[in-house]
Amino acid sequence: MPNTPLTLEQRIKELEHQLANSQQKAEFFESVVDVLERDYGVSIIEKPRGKSSGKSKKRG
Q: From the record, what ranges are coiled-coil (predicted)?
């Protein structure tokens, strides 16, 4: 990409393209999770952010 700044329309098009790609990736990963849960019985649970796992480290 050249060093010239993009016009507003060009930047909007670029962001729309990035958004479409992100949405497509999200749909793909959701489908993968659905298959894992349905066909393999794997449960994918999202951990809450900022929480520790509850495991304490032993010091010795």
A: 12-39
